């Protein structure tokens, strides 16, 4: 994996190489997804309630979804709360799954959505997947789950307990380390991304596996730089090798790094936690 860790002396030579921003049908936080319009993005999982749809009660044992801020709509007016998203894997577009929209995803990229872990397990064991999806007014229950077979009722019920398998816990523990920036557009998690996205490469020591329940791929991190009151949420899409990033260190995308300082600064002191 070719990496260009941004150190102070290397920053100037890399500043001119900016990737084009990811495309989106809306650049406004007050925009709203159009009904029956297909969007291409990524599905990740969430287990924290943002309360953007106060009239909707839900549980993470349900297959529910949260839509990114660019396509959610106005929190105090017209929005996607209570509607449904019909989702298919980008490499298997013929099979679809439908989820009720119950919240907003602040950390999602443009055109991407969050699914409850129960919802994600309907089509993948990974923590991030490339998907197609569209907004619809009502659910299609036939696509949510296979038709039940009476002779296998007990067998079908058992897989729902897979959530009890060991996984990396998301705690509020705060980590400290060096923050640099990098220039890749494809990482160890196997997905393409843009340097205009709010993303990061996690140090190898804390990354874990690259797939499965022990992977940090797709996890979200809240980051704050020393001396700055601002914080940003980034998504883990890559690994920073231990020779560049010690325990606690993060490699940030250019867009994320510039939330705190110009790229010429090269190195930041960060504090961060998983969310």
From TrEMBL:
Cited InterPro entries: Expansin_CellWall, RlpA-like_DPBB, RlpA-like_sf
Signal peptide per UniProt: 1-19
Record-linked CDD domains: DPBB_RlpA_EXP_N-like (cd22191)
Keywords, sorted A to Z: Signal
Residues in coiled coil: none
Biased segments, Low complexity type: 151-171
Chain segments carrying region Disordered: 138-171
Residue intervals of the RlpA-like protein double-psi beta-barrel domain: 177-270
Pfam families given in the database record: DPBB_1
Domain of life: Eukaryota
PANTHER family assigned: PTHR31836, SRCR DOMAIN-CONTAINING PROTEIN-RELATED
Protein name, as recorded: RlpA-like protein double-psi beta-barrel domain-containing protein
Organism: Linnemannia schmuckeri
């Amino acid at each position: 994996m070719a990496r260009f860790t941004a150190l102070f002396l290397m920053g100037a030579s890399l500043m001119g190489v900016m990737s084009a921003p990811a495309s989106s049908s809306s650049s406004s936080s007050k925009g709203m997804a159009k009904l029956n319009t297909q969007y291409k993005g990524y599905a990740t999982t969430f287990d924290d309630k943002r309360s953007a749809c106060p009239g909707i009660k839900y549980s993470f044992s349900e297959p529910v979804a949260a839509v990114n801020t660019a396509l959610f709509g106005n929190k105090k007016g017209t929005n996607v709360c209570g509607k449904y998203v019909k989702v298919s894997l980008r490499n298997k577009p013929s099979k679809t799954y439908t989820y009720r929209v119950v919240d907003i995803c602040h950390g999602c990229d443009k055109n991407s959505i969050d699914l409850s872990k129960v919802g994600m397990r309907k089509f993948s064991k990974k923590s991030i997947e490339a998907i197609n999806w569209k907004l619809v007014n009502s659910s299609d229950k036939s696509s949510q789950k296979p038709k039940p077979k009476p002779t296998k009722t007990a067998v079908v019920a058992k897989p729902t307990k897979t959530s009890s398998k060991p996984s990396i816990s998301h705690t509020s523990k705060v980590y400290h380390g060096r923050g640099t920036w990098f220039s890749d557009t494809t990482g160890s998690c196997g997905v393409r991304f843009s340097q205009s996205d709010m993303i990061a490469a996690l140090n190898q020591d804390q990354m874990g596996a690259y797939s499965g329940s022990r992977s940090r791929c797709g996890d979200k991190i809240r980051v704050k730089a020393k001396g700055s009151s601002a914080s940003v949420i980034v998504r883990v899409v890559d690994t920073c090798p231990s020779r560049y990033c010690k325990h606690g260190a993060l490699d940030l995308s250019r867009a994320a790094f510039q939330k705190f300082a110009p790229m010429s600064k090269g190195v930041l002191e960060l504090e961060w936690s998983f969310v």
